[in-house]
Amino acid sequence: MKRRSKLSIAVAAGLAAIALCGCAVTRASADMPPTSALAAESLYQDNPAMSTMVSASTGKLAFKSDGGYYKHSGSDLWATLRSASTPNTVTAIKTIPNQNIATLRVNADLCGVAVEPSESGSFEFSYIGVKEAGDIAVETAIKDGVLTVTCTGAMPTEGYVNTDPDFRVNTVLVGVPTGVLQEIRLDCGVGSLLVNGVDVPVRGIGNSGLIRVTGNTISASVELQCDRGVLAVQGTTVSAPVILNARNGSVALTAATVTGKADLSTKNGSMDIKVDQLDNARLESRNGSITAEIDAVGENVFAGVENGMLKFHLTKEPQNLVFHLSGGWDGRWGAELLKGWHDGYTVGTGKPVLELSASPNGILSFTVN
């Protein structure tokens, strides 16, 4: 018999949630972080003010350089941008033979870049859905086993890029020989960066754009952080550690099975998790929100917010679980917790452990089907 429990504790708090499928951020409104390794390493930390609207699930990005502001309800805008585009046209740029290249470094601003396996033994570069070659400048350099690719779009008042394979627009495709690379490093300004099906460690930093790592199997570590952008990992089986950290931005994790350690955090942003089996994870948001939809948890899973909202949905009745709650009004949850659910509630063997927290000043909604 299915059971549905719901716990809601509401405290007046300013929530700075950023929608994954339509966020608008400007440098003027962002709570800028102090100088950090992220800020010091990015080529684009001093970019001028820019508004962006991002779809984490599809890799599309719209941006304005005139100080305009995108509304969150942007479906009509996406349709307009799509209808004005000519996607998937292919223009070859260059081919670089493998020269003992072990690391690929990609820098991108005002454009899209997709890194995918090459069918040849060389690095292949092509424009996809780009009207004129001059719209995106592509520079390459090789030194000490590192291939650096810098892609820079022209500075229009408004721009649109899409790295989705079905509708690629204003994107540079970088084809990578199989079994060559040991690491990929990314630096994203206002742009959309995609690593798809290249299962090597990925490290990335972002400014106001989108960085996505996708693939059926993700068995190499992923570590991404951003200032005001969006980070996403999408796969079927994720067996490697995943670290996603966003300041004034959003993160997303979508997969069937996640067995690697997942360490996700946001500040002044939002987090979206859709996983069938989540084995070992720590999900944290400050001044933001977490929305998690999970079939089953394994090992230890913690999800907590400070001054934000946590929506945690177990889509299946757990067979083995110990359930912990922390935070709330001075650590007390009160009568809102329905009968049968309490701190320490145990099902079956009492393992794995699921712990939820909304403290201080949080809203918690926990449901089980």
TrEMBL record:
Cleavable signal peptide: 1-30
Alphabetical keyword list: Signal
Protein name: DUF4097 family beta strand repeat protein
Keyword Signal found: yes
Organism: Faecalicatena faecalis
PROSITE patterns: PROKAR_LIPOPROTEIN
